[in-house]
Structure formats: structure tokens, C-alpha cells
Amino acid sequence: MTPEEIKSVLEAYRTGRLSMDDAVERFRTLPFEDLDFANVDHHRVVRQGYPEVVFGAGKTDDEVVEIVRAMLPHEHNVLVTRTNPIVAERLRELEPQARFHERSRALAIIRDRTVQGRGTVMVVSAGTSDLPVAEEAVVTLETMGHTVDSLYDVGVAGLHRLLDRGERLRKARVLVVVAGMEGALPSVVGGLVAVPVVAVPTSVGYGASFGGVAALLGMLNSCASNVAVVNIDNGFGAGVVAGLINRL
Amino acid sequence: MTPEEIKSVLEAYRTGRLSMDDAVERFRTLPFEDLDFANVDHHRVVRQGYPEVVFGAGKTDDEVVEIVRAMLPHEHNVLVTRTNPIVAERLRELEPQARFHERSRALAIIRDRTVQGRGTVMVVSAGTSDLPVAEEAVVTLETMGHTVDSLYDVGVAGLHRLLDRGERLRKARVLVVVAGMEGALPSVVGGLVAVPVVAVPTSVGYGASFGGVAALLGMLNSCASNVAVVNIDNGFGAGVVAGLINRL
Amino acid sequence: MTPEEIKSVLEAYRTGRLSMDDAVERFRTLPFEDLDFANVDHHRVVRQGYPEVVFGAGKTDDEVVEIVRAMLPHEHNVLVTRTNPIVAERLRELEPQARFHERSRALAIIRDRTVQGRGTVMVVSAGTSDLPVAEEAVVTLETMGHTVDSLYDVGVAGLHRLLDRGERLRKARVLVVVAGMEGALPSVVGGLVAVPVVAVPTSVGYGASFGGVAALLGMLNSCASNVAVVNIDNGFGAGVVAGLINRL
Amino acid sequence: MTPEEIKSVLEAYRTGRLSMDDAVERFRTLPFEDLDFANVDHHRVVRQGYPEVVFGAGKTDDEVVEIVRAMLPHEHNVLVTRTNPIVAERLRELEPQARFHERSRALAIIRDRTVQGRGTVMVVSAGTSDLPVAEEAVVTLETMGHTVDSLYDVGVAGLHRLLDRGERLRKARVLVVVAGMEGALPSVVGGLVAVPVVAVPTSVGYGASFGGVAALLGMLNSCASNVAVVNIDNGFGAGVVAGLINRL
Amino acid sequence: MTPEEIKSVLEAYRTGRLSMDDAVERFRTLPFEDLDFANVDHHRVVRQGYPEVVFGAGKTDDEVVEIVRAMLPHEHNVLVTRTNPIVAERLRELEPQARFHERSRALAIIRDRTVQGRGTVMVVSAGTSDLPVAEEAVVTLETMGHTVDSLYDVGVAGLHRLLDRGERLRKARVLVVVAGMEGALPSVVGGLVAVPVVAVPTSVGYGASFGGVAALLGMLNSCASNVAVVNIDNGFGAGVVAGLINRL
Amino acid sequence: MTPEEIKSVLEAYRTGRLSMDDAVERFRTLPFEDLDFANVDHHRVVRQGYPEVVFGAGKTDDEVVEIVRAMLPHEHNVLVTRTNPIVAERLRELEPQARFHERSRALAIIRDRTVQGRGTVMVVSAGTSDLPVAEEAVVTLETMGHTVDSLYDVGVAGLHRLLDRGERLRKARVLVVVAGMEGALPSVVGGLVAVPVVAVPTSVGYGASFGGVAALLGMLNSCASNVAVVNIDNGFGAGVVAGLINRL
Amino acid sequence: MTPEEIKSVLEAYRTGRLSMDDAVERFRTLPFEDLDFANVDHHRVVRQGYPEVVFGAGKTDDEVVEIVRAMLPHEHNVLVTRTNPIVAERLRELEPQARFHERSRALAIIRDRTVQGRGTVMVVSAGTSDLPVAEEAVVTLETMGHTVDSLYDVGVAGLHRLLDRGERLRKARVLVVVAGMEGALPSVVGGLVAVPVVAVPTSVGYGASFGGVAALLGMLNSCASNVAVVNIDNGFGAGVVAGLINRL
Amino acid sequence: MTPEEIKSVLEAYRTGRLSMDDAVERFRTLPFEDLDFANVDHHRVVRQGYPEVVFGAGKTDDEVVEIVRAMLPHEHNVLVTRTNPIVAERLRELEPQARFHERSRALAIIRDRTVQGRGTVMVVSAGTSDLPVAEEAVVTLETMGHTVDSLYDVGVAGLHRLLDRGERLRKARVLVVVAGMEGALPSVVGGLVAVPVVAVPTSVGYGASFGGVAALLGMLNSCASNVAVVNIDNGFGAGVVAGLINRL
């Protein structure tokens, strides 16, 4: 129910076209979607620099293209996750600014370049195989309007590579730390900084890594208290959480 | 190695008391703990309103008392988690401001009441059995100098209790959401707000809740993108992460 | 917002005490708890013969007694699950009709004896160790106003005991089937009847029963298509679902 | 043993063609399949509007076609689950009314359009990826002779979409609720209605959804008491259970 | 329905006291428990040297005593598993031959000493902590009338102890092999003999033995083809299976 | 060390060519493979009607053909499991009696048709999808020289199909029972017979069957005491165990 | 068969008291326990500085005392794991050198102080709660005659504590690294040294540590290649492996 | 920071080109990778006969070739794991000594043939399907400069094959034992030798082997105390650990 509809009910009542009981009934069944706070999907995007997001996994190429086509008239940024080069090509025809990120298989259409964050978000990853997930976080953050620094291939078995960049780590306002295998990197990074760390386990590993379970458990049991965790391989979710923190 | 020590080596070399090779050796074996950034445990506490924390679980009463006694000369706030009334009594003799929170079994000694956060942290919990974990988060946040609002017993099977407090929810700068059983509350709350949500699964539940695993998986798989998760029953960790976010 | 409040806003607007914009604002922030359909907790109970329910597990004796005391002024039936004889004794002092069921550890206060169901609900259990769960379902159903028939100790390794009661099984309008160990009973019963079967796995078993997981998986994978499952040991939930079906 | 056979034994005994001992022996070894109540597979179908069902998974195309060919002479409805367009084409040649549902990969041959249910069954699903499972439930219900309403894409992170259809939800006599990821939708829907909810977890999800285990556990641990659960992705089973309930 | 009852129906029909239709009805509803083959619980025991068995776990002392008291008038052997010395004392008062086996917590009343097996059953166990389970198998076998040989403490890390008894191993007609920890003993024994091996995993072990899961998996994956497995700690079941084999 | 070698050492000692100490040393290091009892792989086959077995899974076609070629000079039966039609074709060229069983993907070369068993082994399976595993057991048993009866598609949701064949079931000396999904069939069959039942879980199922884990747990927790279990889909192992039992 | 027995057979043959065939038979059935290499349990201990070990868990006090009493006449060192102060007191009466280690609940009787290792074994642990396991490794190593250095409370969230002791770490010939929670310490230590690391996961942790499973998986998936793992809480096993390495 | 750089800072300070404060700052931010002990990746390789290692899994062919090309100028040995014949061909063009091991899919470039170990490393495997993992260990060891003996196809169900090689087993200084299925071989081998055993579970197996979990648990629970475990299928890691031990 829009404010206009509310007004028309009020007016109908005032002028006697609607009895009080009928007016009461109309308000009692007030559709929820018109309440401001619940309109999160749509309104929040506009005000907050959230990109419009299409989860590409499990959708046909045609479905993804059609959804994006419907989004283009609004001037928001658009992010398509887990898509492919063919969709990318078709979307570039619709909107030349569409850019496909091969490693993360994400496609971003950035039209609003307003900076939303107050500082830098640092994305750290343990091994080269973790890069697709790390870069999904990076693309997500950039599409949301954040400044990103990244530090790749700094696994815990070669600490010096990490320690050497202590300065850069400590400059971040929030960090996304991505790791597979034993998932120990967020604990180590968490001990080096005094800001929130969003940890992303990846499905990278062999044998008893069980598709990321080992890394997930490692991160949930982190002995560093400033670590919170998102789902396995969920670079997008980590980017959103880190972006929301950086926007504060 | 303190700056003073570095200076004394430099001076010894310049004045010839130390050969170049010996000076090189001294720097090569430079003890790490003196590097500023690595001194996280100690320095970070002082500067940042972190409480000194003692994990009570698995320690004897005597051990807890001795550790706290050693901390008291510094003027930091002190938080002891998972302790008991007997320890609380002994600590109150050492420091009358010690306050034991029965439900969360946490003890707080708050001497520095500086407000560290920029907004309010909202702690939401699903059922009354989740209260011990929710209150551990509250005590942690208060000891860190944050303003906390709380909303208890608003499980997803009775949505109206939650929806009715939409206004308060949306005023929070960051939320801690605590739930056992199916762990759905963070998804629902995450959909109602546009700020980060720190989700805490609890071990509350029957049968196939498997000591909190059902809630943990529910939260990791949240369809709301602004949710990050800490370990089962880890109210303390959720409080620390939320506090760090609110301090930004 | 009660109908009265809605009326008073309408009246204030009609008489000019409230501008249209202010009236619109009042309706837009309409508190949700007043919407009829969301008031499930309270209204649904009154109209539908649902008992008021107190989950006793994890609550202190005092808490349970206080909650029940607050419920007594309404004339609903009351069900307390997983409680104990001491609480039962105290509740009998408040309300002489309180009756404690030792095996299921449930306490029922039945004041409204209106029959809510249209037929009989049959509760079947596999072994004597499954009785506490089966009887929790029975007490739940009786407190909700249903007629219950029960058939105990008819495990699948002694089929004749079950087959002999085919007539009674087929008279039920809905069945609750309770089993631990391999949890095969709902499949067998499901094949003998043409009505819905609510299956309850129990934690009864040895070794690789894993606290009811074996029975739970057995029931979820039932080759009988008329079987739906509730949580391990959840006799209460099975009773509620079966009761709602029988009420249709 | 048909009544005719029983009669012929009785007659043979009465006329002396069979000794008493031989007659006793004949009855003692009475084949079970002739007992009315055990002939569920066949008789139940005829009387109750159950479709004949062929589980397509794991069968060759030829096997499915042959089984359906054998079913056609009876005038029942026929449902083939998890089949493919090639089988569909071949079956359409046998019976022009065969209709293939692409998303659910189910094929229905509806010849008997008698309405079996007393009300509407509502099928609700959380995300677009859950549609194949939701539609398997819909096709199953329609083939069984039920009126179905459906509500798709109403996940718990966007509650307003669900709450807005409160009226339609509450009109259903029984609901099937389909969800992957955290599987929270049945808890929320269960809290909004006062009738049975059949929950179907789907294998939709990423990382720690573990092929539907997260959703399954979420549903089994639902804090709403009117929820019962079927196997992961088992839209067919949910349809059968809901149909049996609606037929009561 | 006993043969006598069948005869009386036949007679009533022949003499005209019962119409054919009524006789048919009587036979159609023939109670199953009277069919010989389904009366396994009772008849099988009598004919086959099976003991009457009472599973003591989860029963009160009084319940166990009452059940045994009801069994005593028959002259079968009686086996009570997982009971305690107090019950044993009470049973000895009822029947002086009752003998309690402390380690296995089994009580046997052996009155019929007929040898049921054709050869020797060998019970082998890996460690001293596996003895309670091994001895439950021994007592079960002895109560069933089998000759038992046993070989204890012959774990695979000290092969010579096992190999030295090759002669005795190869004399057994069937073996029960009991092991916890890695559960490797049945594989090794299975390779040394050419008869069936019934493997029993025990819950003995530390850390990642997970209450017998490691041993259970080890046995299910045995590279020896003559090994079949029963539930964790199920010495009774292993004894029954081995006894049935030895009786052939 | 062959008997010949032993003799030659003895002779060398007697004639003085070997000192006593050297002779002692020779015997102390006696190679184990010559000891009769340990030569199980080879000798056992010859004497006992065991087929020579080649596990086809994980071997190249060439490897399988070469291994079988090496076996052919002996006159044993040969069984190749989990192979394919191309290997079958090549083996038929080597030995025309080679017969490929398509459903079980087993190839048998039966040259010795001596009956090894004393009775009939019954192979029972629950659904048509379980047939490949059931038939692997059948082929194994036939290659070992056993008489096999089989009973397919008698799942527990349609008990009458099973009960009707009670006579045949009870004629078997040992049974192999194969089932996927909830794996309840061995419990039901176990209750109907008084001989050993070898249960084989299959990986047949949907969703929470977890590749046969549900069936496996169901069988391990069987309430029938005469059931022992082999690995998931291990028709071969079940055949071997049942054959060894039937040979006694 | 002892060398003496071998000699007597040889002699009997040479002097004609034993035929060649009988002598061959005697050697063919040669009991294995007399073969040198298989007598590992006993001989290995004597030669190699292995302590005699009694696993105290699951044994009664009396059993432990009796086993140790039987060991005392030999002059080996004795180690009793997981015992208690009462047993310790009784053993001190038998042998005054018995020393009970309270934290690890191990008792050592060290009589042979020969140094068996060639270098130092370093035992590192992450948290104070890991100390019982770490000290079990230390006591095991000391009883085996090794020089031990230890470094406690150097968890990965406070790296500087560890890095500061780089010198001592790199002096060890082999390291035992003990950690609970995320179990990341062995990866970090493994990256700092160039010798073997024996990792011990502990059951220390909360929530999703699952009794040490998280740490175990973390260690098995270590990105450092020089790490091998023993069972959860198995300080004894780690000590033995490290000791055997250091003895080389 | 190399010694040269340290010297240049010292010199700049001595000659006044750098103030003391600037010099202090330079040393305080000393890059860690230049510290000797932390330079594990690079320096350790040179001194210790470690090969340069490229993990081929998850890398494109081009990436592997480029990394190896960059390594060739140094004279170290190079090991590429989990690669393929096409990469092998391309690398042979760069360096004719490159040798591809088909079964293990490892490629080795051995240019430095210095023997690094002090004794022989024995690699033992249970079945032929375990060979790829066993040979990965062998290639790793050879590339590290160790002498390797190997013993294949000695599973525990045919002990004599293993026992017969007791002499060779006991000559090894350290053993790598590879097994799938029940993973019992390391326990048996561990009991026959008095040196460290590095156990490698493989993913070889059927059904309830769960991709190597059964073997992994078997090895972690080994009753032989001299066994430590690496990840499933991790032949490389086992080779590295065994090589480091043999180098001591």
C-alpha cells in the first residue's frame, strides 16, 4: 500500500464513501511490502551503494541476460556472480561497461563510482588456488564502491612473506582473509591486526580437506577473537560483509 | 629490541666498539617481540579499550585468581569468561568492582568507562535458552566500552515479536544475533537491516541439532549476505567482533 | 494497534485533529503485533484447541511453575514437556487437575475436554525403550483434544505382532510411528495404510545408532511415500502435526 | 487367496473331497497377497485417486516406456518422476495426454480429473533454484487430483514478499514448503499458519550446505511445531503426504 | 488362530452353523500370529536352542526380574544382557543356576546343556579392553549350546602372538573377532582362515576412534572377503550369528 | 622354504657340510611363505572351490586380461568383478566359457561345476535398482559352486510380496539380503527365518541416503539378531561369506 | 622354538632318532614367537631404551599395580600413562623412584639414564590447556632417554612469542607440536624449521572443535610438508615417534 | 634485507648520510624475508637437498611450464607433482633430464645426485591400486637424494607375503606405508620394526571407505606406537617427512 493508497482510503472515509469498519479492515490487512523498512531489496540498494546482484549459479544463460537487461534502466551498479564468458559477451552488447573477471567468473557493470567506504579493505589469500574466491571478494567490494588492497600467496608455512607486509595489513580498516587447506591464515592475520577479519574458507585442498570443511572448522575455532566466518568459497558474502563494515 | 637498543648498537658501531660484521649479526637476530606491530597482545589492549581477557574454562580457581591479581595493577578493564561464583567471591575481595553475571558465568571488572563505540550494538536472541550466550556477548561488549541494546526471545516462528521492534533493530550500527535449533534468526534479521550481522549458533536444541551444528550450518548458509558467523556458543567472540566494528 | 486505535486515528483525521500526512505516517508504522494473522501465539491457541505449551527442558523448576501460574487464569489446556515429579507436585497444588505422566515426563492440565479431531490418531512404537517418546505424543494429542489408540512393541523383526493388528491400524485417520535402532517401522506401517504417517526417530539404540541418526536416516529414506519425519525424540512435535491433520 | 478360492476350499471340505487336515493346511499357508489389507499397491490406487507412479531415476528409457505401456489399460492417472524429453516423446505416441514438465522432469498422464482434496494445497518455495523440487510436488498433487496454489521466491531474507501473501497462505488446508540453503522458510511459514506444513529440503546451496544437509537439519530443528520433513529434493514424497492430508 | 480354531470354523461350516460368507470372513481376517512361520519369537526358541533373551539396557531392575520370572516356567536357557550384580542376586534367589559374568555384565541361566553346534566357535579379541564385548559373545554362545575357544590380547601390532596360535584358529568352524582402535584384527584373522569371520568393532579407543567408528569402518572395508560385521560393541549379536552358522 | 629345501639343509647338517649353528640360523630365518597355513591365497583356492578372483575396478583392460590369462592354465573357476563388455569379449577369445553378466558387470569362467554347498543360498533384494549388487552376489555364489534361489523387488513397503514367499525364504540355508534407501529389508527377513542373514547395503537412494550410509546404519542397527553386514554395494563379499557358510 | 629346541631336533635327526619326514614336519610348524624378528615386544625394549609401557586408561588400580610389579625385576624404565595419584602412591611403595606427573597423569620410573637420542627434541604447545598432552610427550621422551626442550603457550594469534624463540626451535633435531582449537601451530612451526614435525591435535576447544576434529583436520591439511600427525590427545604416541627419530 | 643492505645502512649512518633516527627506522621495519631462518623457501632448498617443488594440481599447463622454466637456472632438483604427459613433453624440451613417472603423474628433474640420506627408506604398499600414491613417495624421495627400497602388494589379508620380507623391512631406517580400504598395514608393519613409520591413507576403496576416511581413521588409531600419519593420498608429504628423518 503506497502513501497514495493510504491517502485515498483516508479520503474515502472522511467523505463518507467508506464506513469506519471498512476503513479499519482496509488498514488491518495493509500489505507489508509497502512498509519502508521491509522494502530492503529495492530501496536499500538505491540509497546505499549496494550493487544489484544476480547469482549466476544454477541459472541458464538466457535467464541471467534477461534479469540483467531488466536491471539496466536503473543506474545502479550490477554484479553477476559465477557466470561465464558467453554471458559476458552478450551483456557487453547490452552495456559496453560490463567487465568479466575471468578468474572469479564474476561480471561487474560499474556506472556509479562514488566511494562508499571510509578506508581500505584488504583482501589476503593463502595460496594461488584460492585466488578465484579472493577475487570474487575484490570484485564485489569494487562494485560496492570500496578501495581494495590485496595480498596474495602468503600462506602460514612461509610466514616471512606475510610479516613483511605488516605495514600494509595494519593500514586496512577491515580485512577479508581467504584460505583453503588448514585455514590457519585468518588466525595469524587476526593476531597481527586490531580490526575485524572476515574469514573465507575455500574448497581448495586434498584428501581430508573434505571440500573446505577442514578450513571452515579451522576458522571457526580461531584462537584470534576478531575473526568471523562466511560459507566455503563465499567470496561474494565476505565482500558484502567487509563492505558494510567499511561503510560505517 | 627497543629503539634504545638499536641506537646503542648503531653507536657502538659508529664509535668502532663493534665491527661491521658483529653489528650485522646483531641486527640479523633482532628479537621479534620488540617490533611494534607484533606486540599486539600488550600494546593493543592499552590503546584500544580491549579488556584484558581470561578464559576461565579449563583453568583451576587458583589459576584464574592469580592471573587476575597480576592484571589488576594496570588500569584496564578485565573480563573473565566461563567462571563460577566462588572465583567471583574471591575476586571481589581483591577488587570490589568485580561483578559476576550469573547467566553468562562471566565476571567483569570495569574501571575505565570510556565509550569506545560510535553507535549502539544490538544483541538479539531467539529463545530463552540462548540467553547465557547472548549475555556473554553483552558483558563482553560492555567491558569493551560499548552501548548495548538487547532483544530476547524473538524466534522466527513468531515473527510479529521481531517485526514489531523493526525500529530498534534498524537503529543498531551492528548486530549480534544468537540462535540455537534451526539458527534461522540471523537470516531474517539480516534481511531487515543494512548493517553487518554477527551470528552466533548455540548448542541449544534437541535430537538432530547435534550440539549446535544445525544452527551453525543454517547460519553459514544464510541467504542474507550481510551475515558472518562465529563458533558455537561463542558469545565472547561475537562481542569482540561486533565491538571492533562499532569502534570504527 | 488495536481496532480501537485504528478507529481513533481515523476519527482524529476526519475531525481535523490529525493532518492527512500525520495519519498516513501513523498507519505506515503500524505495529505488527496487532495484525490478526501474526498474532498466532495467542489467538490461535484460543480458537483451535491448541494447548498452551511450556518446554520444560533447560528451565529451572521455579521458572516452569511461574510460567504455568501465569497461564492458569485462561481456561486453556496446559502441557509441560520434559519436566519432573517435583514440579508436578507444586503444580498440583496450584491446580488439582494437573497430571504427571511419569514415562514421558510430561505434565498435562486438561480443563477443556472438547473433542477436536474427526477420527482416531494411532500411536505405534517399535520397542519398549521407545515408550517415553511415544507417550509424549499421546499426552500431547490428548491435551489437544484427540482420541488416541496405541500399539506398542511391534518391531519389524516380529512382523506378526504388527500384521495381527491390521484392522486397528487401518482405522486410524493419521498415525504417529515411533522407532529407534534401524527406524524401519514407519516404512512397514506406511505400506499397510493409506493415510499420512508421522515418523519419530528415537535415540534408542547401541553403537552405530549414533543417538538416533540411524533411525532418522532410515525414516527420511523410507520407501513408503506417505511418511514425513520430525526430529529425534520429538514426540511432542509428532503429536502436534498429527493433531493438526486429524482436526482437518 | 481370493474369496473364490476360500469358498472352493470350504466346499471341497464340506463335500468330502478334502480332509479336515488338508483343509487346515491350505488355510495355514494362505498366501498373504490375497488378504485385502495387504494388497495396498494395487487396490489402494483404484479407490483413492493415487496415481500409478514410476520412479524414472536409474531406469533405462526402454524400461520406463514398457512399465507405462503396461499401466495404460487401467484408467488411472500415471506419474513418471525424474525422466527426460525423449521418454516423454515416446510416451506421447502411446498416449497423447502425456504431458512433460520440463523443470521438474516429471511426466503426467491425467485421465481422471476427479477432485480428491477438500481444500487447496499451497506449495511455497524459497528461491528460483528450488523450483524443480517445488514443481515436482505440484505435478504430483495435480496428478492425485488436488487443487494447488503456489508461491515462489519468498526466501526469509526478504520477509515482506512472504508476509504480503499472508491471506493466501492462511487459506491453504496444508502447505508444502521447499527450501535449500539454511532451510528456514518452513519455520517462518509454520509460524504464520495453523495447519500442517510438509517441509522439503533441497540440495540447492554452496559450500557448507553439503548437498542439502544444512537445510534438512534446519527443518528437523524447526522451532515451529507444525512442521514435518521429507527427504532432500523429495518433491514427490511431499506431494503425496500433502495430498493424503488434503483428502481427509 | 490355532489349528484347533481353524478346525472348529470348518466344522461349524460343514454342519451349517456358519454360512459360507461368514466362514470366508473368518478366514480372511485370520490373525497372523497363528501362522507357523511368523511365530518366530516363540516357536523358534523352543526348537532351536536359542536362549530366551532379555536386553537389560534401559530397563529397570524390577522390569528385568519380572520378565525373567515369567520365562522361568519354560525350560529354556535364559540370557540377560547388560545387567548388574543386584539384578543377578535377585535372580539367583529365583533360580540358583543363574550365573552373572562380571566383565560382560551378562547373566546366564543354563538348564538345557544340549550341544547345538557342530564344531568350535573361536572368539578372538585384540586388547584387554575389548574383553567385555568378547565375553558377551562367549556367554551368548555358551547359552545357545556351543563349544567356544577363545584367544585374547592378540592385537595386530604384535603379530607373533596371533600367528603362534594358527593351529587353533584354523580348527574353528566360525570365528568371532573383536577389536577396537583401528579394527584391523578381523582382516588379519580372515586372511589366516577359510571360514566365516564375524567381526565386532568395539568402542575402545582414544581421540579419533570416535566411539568405535574407526574400528567399524576398518572392518567394513576389510580386504579379507570372508568378514561380515555387526554393530559396535554388539557381542551378543555376533554370538547369535556365529551360533546360527555353527548349528548348520 | 619348500620341504625339499628343508630336507637339503637337514642332509647338509647330517653329512657335516653345515655346522649346527649354521643350520640353526637357516631355520630361524625360515621364509614364511612356505608354511602351510599361511599359504592361504593359493592352496585354499585349490581345495575349496573358491574361484580365483580379479577385482576389475581400477585396473586397465590390459591388466585384467593379462591376469586372467595367467590364471587359465590352472583349472579353477575364475571371477572378474566390475569389468566391462570389451574385456569380456577379449576373454571369450581366450576361453569360450567366459560369460559376462551385464547387470552386475561380473564375468565368470566356470569350468569346475562341483556343488560345494549343502543347501540353497537365497538372494533377496528390495528394489530393481539393487539388482546389480544382488546379481554380483549371485554370480559369486554360482562361481563358487552354490545353488542359488533369488527373490527380487520385495521392499518393506509392500510386505505381502515378501510374506507370500515365506516358504521359499525358510528353505534357504543362509540368505543374502540386498537393500538401499532405508535398508530395512534384512531386519524384516531376519525376523522371518532362523538362519544367518548376510546384509548388503546399496548406494541406491536419494538425498539423505548419502550413498548407502542410511542403509548401512539401518542394517548395523537391525533389531533382528541374526544379521551381519558387509560393505556398501559389496555383493561379492556377501556372496563369499554366504558361500563359506553354506559350505559348512 | 628356541635355538636349543632347534638344536635338539637337528641332533635327533642326525643320530637317527627322528626320520627326515618327522624333522621336516617339526620345522614346518615352527612356532613363530621364537623367531627373533617377531619378538619385538620383548627384545626391542631391552636393546633400544624403549620404556616398558602400561596404558592406564580402562584398567583398574589393582591391574596397573600388578602389571608394574611384574615389570620391576627387569631393569628397564617404566611408563604408566593416564593413571592417578592413588596408583602413584602404591607404586612409590614398590619403587621409590616412581615419579607421578600431575598434569599429564603419567607415572615414570626411570632407572636407566643412558642418553638414547642424538640431539634435542623440542615440545611446543599452543595454549595452557594443551599442557597435559604436551607433558605426556615430555615424560614419554624423558623415560626413553631423550633430552627435551619445551616451549609452551605460543599460539599462532600471538606470533611474536613464537618467532622470538626461532633460535631454540631451529636447534631441535625433531619437534613435537601440540595444539587444539584450529590446530594451526604445526603449520607455522613447520615453516620455520627444516626437520620433521610430529603434530598432536588436542581435544581442547569449544563448539565446532568437535573434541579435536578441527585441530586434527587442520594438521592433516598442513601446507607445511614436514608435518606428520598422531591421534587426538596422543602425547605418548608423539613422544615415541619423535624419540625413535631422534635415536637415528 | 641482505647482509649487504644492512652493511650499507650501517655505513650510511657512520658517514652521516643517515641520521640515527632514520637508521633506527630502517632497522625497525627490517623486511622479514631477509632473516636467515625465515628464508626457508629459498635457502633451505639450496643447503638441504630439498627439491624445488611445483604442485601441479589446479595449475594450467602453461603456469607449470613457466614456473619450472624459472627454476631451471638454479642447479637444484625439481619435482612437479600431479602433472600430465603433455607438460612432461614440454619440459623435456627445456631440460632433457626431465623424467615423467606415469603412475604417480610426477615429473622429476634430477641434476644433483648427491646422496642425502644415511640409510634406506622403505616404501610399502597394500594393494596395486595404492601404487600411484606409493610411487609419488618414491619419486619424492629419489628427487631428495635418498636410497629407496619398495615392497608392493603386501596387504594384511595375506600376511605371509609381508612376513617373508621381514629382513628387508628391518633394514630400513624409516618406512613409508601406503594403504587404502581398512588401512591396517601400518599397524602390522609398525609392530615388525623398531623405527618410525610414516603412514599414508589412500582414497582406494569401495562404499564405506568414504574416499580414504576409513583408512585415515585406521592409521590414526593404530595400536602400534611408532606410526605417524599424513593426509589422504599425500605420497609427496610422506616422502618429505621420511626423507627429513633419513637425513638426520
Give a verbal description of the structure.
The structure is a homooctamer of 248-residue chains. The first copy, chain A, is 42% helix and 16% strand. Chain A is built from eleven helices and nine strands. The first copy, chain A, has helices spanning 3-14, 20-28, 40-48, 61-71, 85-94, 131-143, 159-163, 166-171, 185-192, 213-220, 235-247, and strands at residues 52-55, 78-81, 99-101, 106-109, 120-125, 147-151, 174-179, 197-201, 227-229. In chain A, the strands form two sheets. In chain A, strands 6-5-7-8-9 form a five-stranded parallel β-sheet, with helices on both faces. In chain A, a hairpin with a 4-residue loop joins strand 3 and strand 4. In chain A, helix 1 (3-14) packs antiparallel against helix 2 (20-28), helix 4 packs parallel to helix 5 and helix 6 runs parallel beside helix 11 (235-247). Chain A is globular, with a radius of gyration of 23 Å. The F-G interface holds F 3, 6-7, 10-11, 13-14, 20, 23-24, 27-30, 34-36 and G 3, 6-7, 10-11, 13-14, 20, 23-24, 27-30, 35-36.
What are its keywords?
homooctamer, about 250 residues, alpha/beta, Rossmann fold, 4-stranded mixed β-sheet, 9 strands
Can you lay out the helices and strands and say which pair or pack?
Eight copies of one chain form a homooctamer.
Chain A: H1 3-14, H2 20-28, H3 40-48, E1 52-55, H4 61-71, E2 78-81, H5 85-94, E3 99-101, E4 106-109, E5 120-125, H6 131-143, E6 147-151, H7 159-163, H8 166-171, E7 174-179, H9 185-192, E8 197-201, H10 213-220, E9 227-229, H11 235-247
Parallel strand pairs in A: 1-2, 5-6, 5-7, 7-8, 8-9
Antiparallel strand pairs in A: 2-4, 3-4
